[in-house]
Amino acid sequence: MSNLSKANVMHRNNNKENTFLFLTDVNSILVSGEDTNGEFCVVHCAVKKDDGPPLHLHEKEDESFYVLDGEIEMTLGTQTIVVKSGEYVFAPRGIPHTFKVKSDTAKFLVTAYPAGFDSFVKELGVPYVEGMEAHVEPPTPEAMQKLLSVSKKYHITYPGL
């Protein structure tokens, strides 16, 4: 982080300017790539029981997950682990991974380095308004095409899709 200066010191919370309904999650971008000269981003995720992304891999970024509340089951490559509140997981680039929320809800922080996941959330998400519900039906063919198209731009692929 040698490119960062004291001018980048920040204090931020989840608010209407940085929060998006992203697929089935409510994601708040706490630190963006714009804040860190592209070095990393931090996204606060609020997810409901049984939600989680399809198996995917990031070709250009590493991710870490820190569970603030709840319990998620993560698959990283061939390993599946249960991650509880207060626990951390590192998911290196190039390894297929996914998660599924096992508790009623879960809140966790995703840090991606370099940044890019924050832009992915902004591009695929819609500004969140309190009370919005995610669509729980299977995605339409158009929604799947958009997911795959935007994912390709960010070097995210889906083994098996």
Question: How are strands sequenced across the largest beta sheet?
Answer: 8-5-10-3-2-1-11
Instruction: Please state the structural category.
Output: mainly beta
Note the run of SSEs as H and E: EEEEEEEEEEHEHE
> What is the CATH architecture assignment?
Sandwich
Write down the CATH class.
Answer: Mainly Beta
Organism: Paenibacillus oryzisoli
Protein name: Cupin type-2 domain-containing protein
Domain Cupin type-2: 46-109
Pfam families: Cupin_2
Give the gist of this structure:
This protein is mainly β and 161 residues long.
Features:
161 residues; mainly beta; Jelly Rolls; seven-stranded antiparallel beta sheet; three-stranded antiparallel beta sheet; 2 helices; 12 strands; 13% helix; globular
Topology:
Elements (H helix, E strand, L loop, with lengths): L18 E4 L2 E7 L9 E8 L8 E2 L3 E8 L1 E6 L2 E6 L3 E4 L5 E5 L3 E9 L3 H8 L1 E2 L13 H13 L2 E2 L4
Antiparallel strand pairs: 1-2, 1-11, 2-3, 3-10, 4-12, 5-8, 5-10, 6-7, 6-9
